[in-house]
Each structure stands twice: as structure tokens, then as C-alpha cells.
């Protein structure tokens, strides 16, 4: 017997005896090869199909040990049950699923309150598939507001080189010049001085990040806003700000309530966050909120007659499941302010414990500690005898996924490891990681240090 497997035909295994696959039909076991390039001719029993796919997915990394991702990897069983019940609901069909639409509205209002919107009755906002879509929508609003000023030059957007790639995509897709502020020395993100120096009458906005993915640090939103206020007084250029709070907008309200970064600053026009990051929801849901209706030009909001109902919509996607929105509302109901504070504080405590433990090991130097986002970056000392790529590779052998990568323009000489602490990553797991690091050090010191191409060695994208 010859079976089609991928791009080559290989001899099949005849006479399957494994009841997990063969069941009452042993001959079926001989043909259990999932399709690679074309559909098979016949269907399989559901349990058999499930097992085939599950077997292949075992080759993925363990999500709970993935310290590279910001995305939520654990939710309560009750949340999983709720999501399973809602996965067939189309979020865009607000006429057929009016209560799911109501939960979305409530989530937007809760976020506007967390972010100190001046008039809750005047805000605009919506759910998205994640922060990338939310950022695109915010950028579109900034560009449309600028276009109404009658300027004739090419629009530009000012931001740090540490922005998430979605902002570079936005600039390419919507023909906006990206003015990226490079890193310099020990400055790893945007500063007020560098931001203002790149603004002109064609600047549609300045993007500040509350929680840089490179090192977990907050950008100085209030300082940038004050510098833009001063610039407006001198030049008349009234340049709005967008705060990319993909992670920090769900951390700062609970752990840093006195930090002024949100709609308390009149220059902040819009804010986004990822519900599937420190919003504690499985992927993918994001949120974007505008401080008032004037910040979101009305012509960008479409009224659609869909399945008998007239509804406003502002999104790049149309159909998508309502499960994540229901799960976001569940977390708000379940935790409240104090619950969110406790969860985020626990993550920060673990991050500080882990970063201090790594610093005490000797060969490592911290760039950040995890005292803003529960995220920190560290590198190897010059005399360590090995580099961050050696460490990342050896940790992977134990199941830990810790990214190693070089910093961007002007600091490509700096390569770091970054650890993201999320809900579900406990002190016990942190101690196990520290023990593994300590156990690996003698081997790293003896066998590390081989020259390598860092461009090829980089295993993760931030």
C-alpha cells in the first residue's frame, strides 16, 4: 500500500493495531495521514480526526512556559466554559445578538472610566480583534482629523523606534510618513524632547507607548503632552496624542493610579489596549476608546443595514466571534477593581522577585526590573563567556521559551533576553526558572561563547 504524505509518497503502515486510532476498523489505522496539500477523499470519525490534530500540536511549546508572549495563556474554567457557549455568536450581528452588543458597550464604558474620560456620555469606542486593529483605527482617525485642516504636505506620525510593527504597517497602508525616534545610549524609548523635534504642521499625531515591548518601561506620556502643549503655544500646531496602552493601560490604572497618562491629559485623543494581554482574556480581543465624539470623525463610522437592523460600525474586520467580548466582560464582573489590582500586583511581585534573583546570579545585567509592566530585559556581562542567544537556546531545552534579540537602530550592538510575567506565572515557577538558570551556568561558561551571526541567532520577534 502506498499513501500520499505531504509532497512525497511513502510506504504506509499496514495492519494497525492501536485501538486509539483503529477502533473497530484496524484497516483505518494504515491510512491515518492527515492531508498536507489536498483534501482526502473520505471523512474520518470525529475522535480520530481530533487525535490526529492533537498529536501534531504536541510539537508546539508549552504556552504556560512561554515567557516571550504578552498574550494570556490561562483563564479560569468558568471563563473557558462561557467562551465555548459564545463562540458561535457573530460579534458584528448586533441585531441578532443584542445582549452581546450590550456587553461590548459596557466594556467600553468601563475602560473609559478607568482611563478618566472627561464626559462618559460623549466617548466613542469599540472592540477589535486586538491592539493592531485598534491602532489602525486610531491612526485613521488621526489622519482624517489632520486632513480637515487643509494642509498640503505629506502627513507624518511621530513615534519611537520601539513601537509595535502595527504602527509601521499603518504608515505604509495609509501613506503616512513614519518619523521613528531611534534609541540612544541608555534611552530605550521616546522622550518629549525627541518627539517634539520631529513634529511639524503635517504631523497627524504622536504615539506614546505605555509599556514598551522591548523592556517593559512606560514612556513619559505627561512630559510629551506638556512639550506638545508648549509647541502649540509657539507654533499653533495642535498635535493630538494616541496612547498605545496594549499592555500598560490594563496595569497602570490598578497599580499606578497616580501616574497621569490617560484622558486626564487633554492632548490624549485616544487610547487602545489588548484585552488578550493584561486584560486577562484569551486571544484575540482589543479595545480602542476616543475621549469624545469630536476625536473620531463621523464619516469614519458607517451605518450598515444588516439582517434587518441598522447599526453603526467602525472596524477593519466585519464578522468575528463574540466569545472574547463575553470573556472580557466576565473578567470585569469576576474581578472588579480590587481583583484586577491583586492579579496585576502578583505579576509585578513575581517579576521583581525574578529580576532580582537573576541579577544575583552574577553573569547578568538588568536593563529594567519589572516595576512598571511586569516585564524586564537583561543581558550578559561582557566577561560572562557566553551571550543571550546561548542562554535562550539552553533554556528551551528545559521547555522555557525566553526570547533573545537585538535592539533596533542605534543600539543594534545590544542583545537582550526579555521575560514577560503574566497571570498564572507563579513564584514557584519563577524559582524553578532561577534554579534552571543557575544549573546551566557552569555549562554555559564552559561551552558558550562561540561566534555567531546574531541576525540568524535571533529566535523571537518582540
From TrEMBL:
Gene Ontology biological process terms in this record: L-glutamate catabolic process
Region (Disordered) location: 1-21
CDD domains per UniProt: DOPA_deC_like
Enzyme Commission identifier(s): 4.1.1.15
GO molecular function: aromatic-L-amino-acid decarboxylase activity; glutamate decarboxylase activity; pyridoxal phosphate binding
Gene3D superfamilies, per database record: 3.90.1150.160, 4.10.280.50, Type I PLP-dependent aspartate aminotransferase-like (Major domain) (3.40.640.10)
Reactions catalysed according to its record: L-glutamate + H(+) = 4-aminobutanoate + CO2
Biased composition, class Basic and acidic residues, residue ranges: 1-12
Cofactors that this protein relies on: pyridoxal 5'-phosphate
Source organism superkingdom: Bacteria
Modified residues (N6-(pyridoxal phosphate)lysine): 277
Assigned keywords, A-Z: Decarboxylase, Lyase, Pyridoxal phosphate
GO cellular component terms given for this protein: cytosol
Matching InterPro entries: Glutamate_decarboxylase (IPR010107), PyrdxlP-dep_de-COase (IPR002129), PyrdxlP-dep_Trfase (IPR015424), PyrdxlP-dep_Trfase_major (IPR015421)
EC class (word): lyase
Membership in a protein family: Belongs to the group II decarboxylase family.
Designated name of the protein: Glutamate decarboxylase
Amino acid at each position: 500500500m502506498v499513501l500520499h504524505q505531504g509532497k512525497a509518497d511513502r510506504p504506509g503502515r499496514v495492519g494497525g493495531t492501536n485501538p486509539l486510532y483503529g477502533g473497530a476498523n484496524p484497516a483505518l489505522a494504515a491510512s491515518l495521514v492527515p492531508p498536507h496539500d489536498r483534501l482526502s477523499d473520505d471523512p474520518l470519525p470525529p475522535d480520530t480526526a481530533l487525535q490526529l490534530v492533537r498529536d501534531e500540536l504536541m510539537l508546539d511549546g508549552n504556552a504556560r512556559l512561554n515567557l516571550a508572549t504578552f498574550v494570556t495563556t490561562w483563564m479560569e474554567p468558568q471563563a473557558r466554559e462561557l467562551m465555548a457557549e459564545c463562540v458561535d455568536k457573530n460579534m458584528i450581528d448586533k441585531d441578532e445578538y443584542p445582549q452581546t452588543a450590550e456587553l461590548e458597550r459596557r466594556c467600553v464604558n468601563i475602560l473609559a472610566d478607568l482611563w478618566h474620560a472627561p464626559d462618559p456620555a460623549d466617548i466613542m469606542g469599540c472592540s477589535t480583534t486586538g491592539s493592531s486593529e485598534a491602532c489602525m483605527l486610531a491612526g485613521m482617525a488621526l489622519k482624517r482629523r489632520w486632513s480637515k485642516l487643509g494642509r498640503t504636505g505629506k502627513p507624518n506620525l511621530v513615534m519611537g523606534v520601539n513601537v509595535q510593527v502595527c504602527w509601521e504597517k499603518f504608515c505604509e497602508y495609509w501613506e503616512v510618513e513614519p518619523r521613528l525616534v531611534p534609541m540612544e545610549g541608555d534611552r530605550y524609548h521616546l522622550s518629549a524632547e525627541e518627539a517634539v523635534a520631529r513634529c511639524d504642521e503635517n504631523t497627524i499625531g504622536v504615539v506614546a507607548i505605555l509599556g514598551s515591548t522591548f523592556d517593559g518601561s512606560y514612556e513619559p506620556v505627561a512630559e510629551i503632552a506638556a512639550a506638545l502643549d508648549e509647541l502649540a503655544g509657539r507654533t499653533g500646531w495642535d498635535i493630538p496624542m494616541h496612547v498605545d496602552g496594549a499592555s500598560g493601560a490594563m496595569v497602570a490604572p490598578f497599580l499606578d493610579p497616580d501616574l497621569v497618562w490617560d484622558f486626564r491629559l487633554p492632548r490624549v485623543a485616544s487610547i487602545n489596549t489588548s484585552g488578550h494581554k493584561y486584560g486577562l482574556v484569551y486571544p484575540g480581543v482589543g479595545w480602542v476608546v476616543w475621549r469624545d465624539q469630536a476625536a473620531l470623525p463621523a464619516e469614519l463610522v458607517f451605518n450598515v443595514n444588516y439582517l434587518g437592523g441598522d447599526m453603526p460600525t467602525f472596524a477593519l474586520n466585519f464578522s468575528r466571534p463574540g466569545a472574547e467580548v463575553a470573556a472580557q466582560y466576565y473578567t470585569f464582573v469576576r474581578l472588579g477593581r480590587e481583583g484586577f489590582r491583586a492579579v496585576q500586583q502578583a505579576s509585578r511581585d513575581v517579576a521583581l522577585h525574578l529580576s532580582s534573583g537573576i541579577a544575583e546570579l552574577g553573569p547578568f545585567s538588568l536593563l529594567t526590573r519589572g516595576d512598571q509592566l511586569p516585564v524586564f530585559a537583561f543581558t550578559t556581562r561582557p566577561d560572562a563567556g557566553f551571550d543571550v542567544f546561548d542562554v535562550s537556546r539552553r533554556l528551551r531545552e528545559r521547555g522555557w521559551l525566553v526570547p533573545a534579540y537585538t535592539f533596533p537602530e542605534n543600539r543594534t550592538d545590544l542583545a537582550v533576553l526579555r521575560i514577560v510575567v503574566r497571570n498564572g506565572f507563579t513564584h514557584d515557577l519563577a524559582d524553578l526558572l532561577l534554579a534552571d538558570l543557575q544549573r546551566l551556568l557552569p555549562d554555559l561558561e564552559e561551552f558558550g561563547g562561540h561566534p555567531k551571526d546574531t541576525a540568524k541567532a535571533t529566535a523571537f520577534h518582540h
